[in-house]
Amino acid sequence: MIVIFSDTHSASGHELEGEALTAARTADVVLHAGDFTSEAALEAFQRECDRLYAVHGNADDPAVCDRLPPARVVEADGVRFALTHRRDGGQTGLAMFGRSRAADVVVFGHSHRPAVIDAGDVTLVNPGSHADPRGNRPGFGVLESARSEDRETGKTTTDRRLEGAIQEPDGTIIETVGISVS
CA 71, CA 86: separation in Å to the nearest integer? Predict the structure, then answer.
């Protein structure tokens, strides 16, 4: 399971609760698109998540920026994720960022607004903010490799698809997600 967070904006800790905390603790991979704000928040995430891959955002303390890159690429479940906090140029800029890194999915934050956008050959995912939604629904993302049965052979196979949801910390579904990857 791949779990996605962004925009924690905390001076003291990870601010995870409910299903968001459970997901962070049990995920195979946790991706965070920046704006922990403080080292305390980053370190709290690191204590909860075995495999945390993160970037820094525009509101992060200098100490966080020194520890995290502004962008990175992570491969998980055979899918290539490009992480950034924000990009100039909106959706087009984010899609170009992903394409330049041969990514299947771009994970971004900054707006605090959960969104899944099909940009053709790359999918853009903003999980929103689980802790500081700023007028939006609080959110985080959960993705898993989809399994399907081959009708001819009856065997279960991975079909290069991720399925999941953007959900509120209590588990309420905001938007379901289906991502086909090449």
Answer: 9
Strand extents, DSSP E, 77-153: 79-84, 105-107, 115-118, 123-126, 140-149
Q: How far apart are CA 62 and CA 78, in angstroms?
A: 33
What is this structure's pTM?
0.92
Joined together, the tokens standing for residue 32 give 């965070």
**In the chain, which residue ranges form alpha helices assigned H by DSSP?**
18-26, 39-48, 62-67, 90-100
25 neighbors 14 (Cβ within 8 angstroms): no
The angle at the Cα of 38, spanning 135 to 86, to the nearest 5 degrees, equals 55
For the domain made up of 2-180, give the CATH fold. Answer: Purple Acid Phosphatase; chain A, domain 2 (3.60.21)
Residue 134 neighbours by CB distance under 10 Å: 12
pLDDT digits (tens, 9 = 90+) for 75-104: 998 899 999 999 888 999 999 999 999 999
